[in-house]
Design goal:
single chain, alpha/beta, Rossmann fold, 2 domains, four-stranded parallel beta sheet, two-stranded antiparallel sheet, 6 helices
């Protein structure tokens, strides 16, 4: 991972110097270079999809969501990067955008770029229509209902892992299913307990 990080830093340095020295380069030009894989960071890793398929034959998905009305734009910005990270460890990505899509100009240029890159990396992109006032709350809840997705995306015997748009997997062995288990919860005891109607419940991360 250190070598991959160093290569990414070097690539970023080259891009920064190029943009600084040549003011004629536009963001469209940079986009074209990235799409054509002229700036590539390589790393040493196993073939994640083949490694996982030896252990678990069913397809594996990572699902996460974000609100299109969130004041923190990094959530939507990270979505294609996070989707690519899940692809690297053998999971297909399902990304859900939540909000009021009937509002004028709600899909900003920044948001459209993220969605375009998601499709470029092969992620499933879904939109959930709701009032803007509770889009953030719904984006946190909607991933729990991934079992209701149509058969064109997931099947009954597929494995689905819930995550966040800014949580990126690093090591494949941390997300590999083992025999005799149905899944896993990371940092399961992080959230303490809460009370409702006189009863105490432990809160688990989604």
């Amino acid at each position: 991972m250190k070598s991959a990080f160093l290569l990414l830093c070097i690539a970023l340095l080259i891009v920064s110097i190029t943009l600084y020295l040549n003011t004629n380069i536009t963001w469209e030009t940079l986009h074209t270079y990235l799409i054509n894989n002229r700036i590539i960071a390589t790393y040493h890793s196993v073939n994640a999809t083949e490694e996982i398929s030896k252990i678990h034959v069913n397809r594996q998905f990572a699902i996460f969501a974000c609100s299109i009305h969130s004041s923190v734009q990094s959530y939507s910005f990270y979505t294609p990067i996070t989707a690519s990270s899940w692809n690297r460890v053998g999971y297909n990505a399902i990304v859900i955008f939540v909000g009021d899509f009937t509002l004028p100009n709600v899909l900003t240029a920044r948001l459209k770029l993220s969605r375009a890159y998601l499709k470029h990396v092969g992620a499933h992109v879904l939109d959930v229509q709701c009032n803007a006032s509770y889009a953030v709350k719904l984006s946190q809840l909607v991933r729990v209902f991934s079992g209701f997705l149509p058969d064109s995306i997931v099947h009954d015997d597929d494995y689905i892992l819930t995550g966040d748009s800014d949580l990126m997997p690093l090591k494949i062995n941390g997300y590999t299913l083992t025999n005799g288990t149905d899944g896993f919860i990371f940092n399961a005891l992080c959230c303490g307990t809460f009370k409702r109607r006189g009863k105490s419940y432990r809160m688990y991360p989604s």
